[in-house]
Amino acid sequence: MLRMRSGWTIALLVMLVVAGGCGGGDEGAPDEARLQELSALQEMKAELDAKRQELADLQAQIAAGPEEGEEAAEGEPAAEGEEAAEGEEAADPEARVAELEQEVLDLADAFASRIVAFINADPPLVGEELSEIQLAAIRMKSDEDLVLARGYIERGGDYRRAMRIYEDALAADPDNEKLKAALADAEELRFMTAERFAEVKKGMTEDEVRATLGQVNLRNIKEYPEKNVVAWFYPTAEDGSAAAVYYRKRGDEYQVYEANFEAVKPKTEGEG
Fold first, then answer.
1. Largest CA distance in the chain
2. pLDDT cut 90: percent of the chain above it
3. In the Cβ-directed half-sphere of 25, how many Cα atoms lie within 13 Å?
4. What is the Rg, in whole angstroms, of the alpha carbon atoms belonging to the chain?
């Protein structure tokens, strides 16, 4: 299931960045309260990143399957107290994944609200150089926007939405090279090319195609239950043309039986 936090904070920040008027730039010595809040935000971001890494490691562990000798270890009696709790957690890694996903989601939402509130309390103004505090805060938010946008691509194949996130973030952080590179990559990969598509082979599973072509946009999956067929459509241009990968159920999984780069052709003038 695709679980993403909303991007409502992005537009708010951009509006404040381009607005004129009061605020902007710390004058004189930085306010001690803002320094303390910035430090708290940095700690919060570090905690969030650590939880994301723990989640990614556990998901990779599950995907790789049990290691040699792990089954025998599971049969040993659990230690008392904390070690026993750790043993229970290890015995049900999927339950821990669900817990971590919720923890990451909640912490990301809390961080997003808090970082935007911090930036908006002293918003940067057009034409004025950012203070060190403003820049540090905006860079943290940009890092979160990068994670959010990558999630839309990796889990939902939604390049269009990811590009909007990158563009909005760049409006507030125009010198951020990571944002520029991510936007360029999204623009390049948004449309399928014949060269990339040629890597799809008959008999591939859905996971193998996903690893080869990237995540298909969830809105571009069509099922034909009466034929036991599923089709994935990858746009090839702005005109509506698309390549398609067709799967048929074989045993417990779907496998490619046909791949057509010109499956959906653009409409010609006069077509309704």
1. 75
2. 69
3. 11
4. 24
